[in-house]
Write a structure and sequence with these properties.
It is a single chain. The protein is of the alpha/beta class and 274 residues long. The chain contains 11 helices and 8 strands. Strand 4, helix 9 and strand 5 form a beta-alpha-beta unit. Helix 2 packs across helix 3 and helix 3 packs antiparallel against helix 10.
């Protein structure tokens, strides 16, 4: 099928899109020529981005399994991106059949595809929103129907914050989400860092500035990313390269720095924890 045949109505496919670029990195087909061209520019700078995309996806599966095993059955996946294999609800339900998942995004292609795939699944829903509007997100009526805020919930923010510059106050927005979470909840995130590849920072940031039509630099070091977990209790092994976070295969740790994205999970304590 040609790009034109797959083009949703009223969608500008001449501009690259981060979600569709990620889909391309993962071998998906929900992308267009502009997305592929921008993605190939990045691969010229850092071919390991393909490995990074798959390592981040594997981290997502591991951390969701961990959370379900520790009693979490409610998930809010913010900036969920295009549906792929091993989505949050699929991983969670492989352990707990009653797991409930809300997918959140503001991209029309993502919303359309996610709603089509999830169909009438009563324990999932798709809502329009983003991390920069935490109060509006949590107040969404469809989200409120599915998520019980009297019980712990996991808020997942995979590969989103790395595109949000300080000018938009991502730290304040994440802190607000933390405050809105019930006690016993978890915040999980991944974020690309350039600690081991400082040479790649400027050219990669330049590509994303063009894609996002922004002039600001949103790149961060691991220490800067750690601030997103302020006020929470990091789960061992802390904020580490995604391959180092409770790996299924210990051999993956030997090359962890070649997937220079960090990830972590942190719990909001209860009064009884004091």
């Amino acid at each position: 099928m040609t790009d034109e045949a797959r083009r949703p109505a009223d969608l500008d496919t001449t501009r690259p899109n981060v979600a569709r670029m990620t889909d391309y990195f993962l071998g998906g087909k929900d992308n267009f020529a502009a997305d592929r061209q921008a993605a190939e520019k990045l691969l010229t700078i850092a071919p390991e981005i393909l490995v990074m995309a798959k390592a981040a996806q594997a981290f997502q599966s591991r951390v969701v399994r961990y959370l379900v095993e520790h009693g979490i059955t409610q998930f809010i996946n913010v900036g969920s991106g295009l549906p792929t294999q091993n989505n949050t609800h699929e991983v969670a339900r492989s352990i707990s059949a009653d797991a409930r998942v809300v997918y959140v995004d503001d991209d029309p292609v993502v919303l359309s595809h996610a709603r089509a795939i999830l169909g009438r699944d009563p324990n999932t829903c798709v809502v329009k929103g983003d991390v920069l509007h935490p109060d509006e997100l949590i107040a969404d009526p469809d989200l409120q129907k599915l998520i019980d805020f009297d019980q712990p919930v996991a808020i997942l923010i995979f590969g989103v914050l790395q595109f949000i510059p300080a000018e938009d106050d991502p730290f304040g927005c994440v802190a607000r989400l933390r405050d809105l979470m019930p006690a016993g909840s978890y915040l999980v995130l991944t974020h690309v860092v350039f600690d081991t590849r400082p040479d790649a920072a400027e050219p990669i940031v330049d590509v994303y500035k063009q894609v996002l039509n922004r002039a600001e630099d949103a790149s961060r070091t691991r220490e800067e990313v750690l601030r997103f977990f302020d006020g929470l209790e990091l789960v061992e092994p802390g904020l580490v390269y995604v391959r180092e976070w409770r790996p299924d295969n210990p051999l993956a740790v030997q090359v962890s720095e070649k997937a220079w994205s960090v990830g972590g999970a942190a719990r909001k304590g209860t009064a009884s924890d004091s």
